[in-house]
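Re: your question about Ferredoxin--nitrite reductase, chloroplastic

S., sorry for the slow reply, the queue was backed up all week. Below is exactly what I fed in.
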Amino acid sequence: MSSFSVRFFAPQQPLLPSTASSFKPKTWVMAAPTTAPATSVDVDGQRLEPRVEEREGYFVLKEKFRDGINPQEKIKIEKDPLKLFMEAGIDELAKMSFEDIDKAKATKDDIDVRLKWLGLFHRRKHQYGRFMMRLKLPNGVTTSAQTRYLASVIRKYGKEGCADVTTRQNWQIRGVVLPDVPEILKGLDEVGLTSLQSGMDNVRNPVGNPLAGIDPEEIVDTRPYTNLLSQFITANSRGNPAFANLPRKWNVCVVGSHDLYEHPHINDLAYMPATKNGRFGFNLLVGGFFSAKRCDEAIPLDAWVSADDVIPLCKAVLEAYRDLGYRGNRQKTRMMWLIDELGIEVFRSEVAKRMPQKELERASDEDLVQKQWERRDYLGVHPQKQEGFSYIGIHIPVGRVQADDMDELARLADTYGSGEFRLTVEQNIIIPNVENSKLEALLNEPLLKDRFSPQPSILMKGLVACTGNQFCGQAIIETKARALKVTEEVERLVSVSRPVRMHWTGCPNTCGQVQVADIGFMGCMARDENGKPCEGADIFLGGRIGSDSHLGELYKKGVPCKNLVPVVADILVEHFGAVPRQREEGED
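Result:
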């Protein structure tokens, strides 16, 4: 597998031409990480011995490194999860009853752990026998045909079936039952989609600029790069064992906008556009992540690669992480822990020696991302770089859609656009390539007038929520419906004149990314006024996105959910310039 190669397929959608805007490059600065890794650390040479080796086409942890490994690593050793796909194990598994599956550890582990390599997450706690399926949607670009297919899948599951836009520009569909999985996988392939290697110890959906190719201010069209990354990582959706046994999950993004819609500071690898000696390429940030016990912002690798080396660099970083990463306590297995242990220079050298040329150029000082840039709102109608066309950003409340919604969105994309739309990390949708002459008719469509407004209220437009305990067994509280309800009630109490981003997550795993929000709510158990346990939230304040990014900090612990409305209203008044509605009306 060390000589693994893959022929990249051409992107399904024609890529619109992109030209970089002309401006004077400015230095881009990232906020300091919570714990700055040492630049130089004395590392024993034996520590740099790769811990995995290839056996019969799969990468396996060597016997001498198996002491103290976590239970998930033991499950991977017992059987490589990717075999369920590459050796058609899913076909046999899908024929078994859950009663028989639960009788044997091997098949129970298949259902609860290994199927995550196929993007299937068993909801044993709240939806026994049903799965969430996570797709791969590089750059968040999808088509009307793909969306209709997903709608057809979830519709058959009735009230159990729905779909969510995720915080990685992706779709997750819910309600899936095991006997249907082989047919669903075939259907995904027929419409150019895959769910492969989207969960557990794999590379997650590559994120890019949601306005790629249509934004008059874009630096570079990110779609070719995110497509190549996804194709490389999954071997064109056929399965890539070389990167299916990482110590933990791993996130990547390619930045194409001054707005940093891609949130580079929370990715394990972020490509930041920069020129060097007249060549276009990327400076690199590494190590950004969230977890229950630690959250850190990405730090500079002090390296630059040309655009031609995007894939070789990704391969080298993944190999360094795969080969050297710690596989004990799961709370200490993300890539930043390895960077901490080795020091950034040793980690950099390990990446360099895995590059084709065995070296890495130092970072460029010709960053193309402008530091002084006011982040633009993509919701509403905006002109494209293509004359006579516009894109329209529509608000999807907390990212939740039903089958009929998806069919209607597909119809709108076909009728008014080019049959394409983009998903965003804020759980919204953009319809591109709308002729200006069709804008009025599109804006008058009932779906946009009723549920998915291009002009939501100022607090609703910044609202993000994870799945919550409706479906997720790890969530402590319900999030989506509660986020909407609390926001609606707060809006009745105060008037806000500037955007405030509020994120909800059901547990400390922070899938809702509360640390990047202006105000974040992390589910917890609290005590009510009588001292009885109740659903509550820890409140975070001060998260920032953009070139002056900063992770928010804990503001108040254990607020009962029933008491959140007045607390949030007070926070908005004290910290965000909100005005109480009664005073506002009195002044009028």
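The radius of gyration is 23 Å. Residues 310-324 form the longest helix (15 residues).

Happy to talk it through on Thursday.
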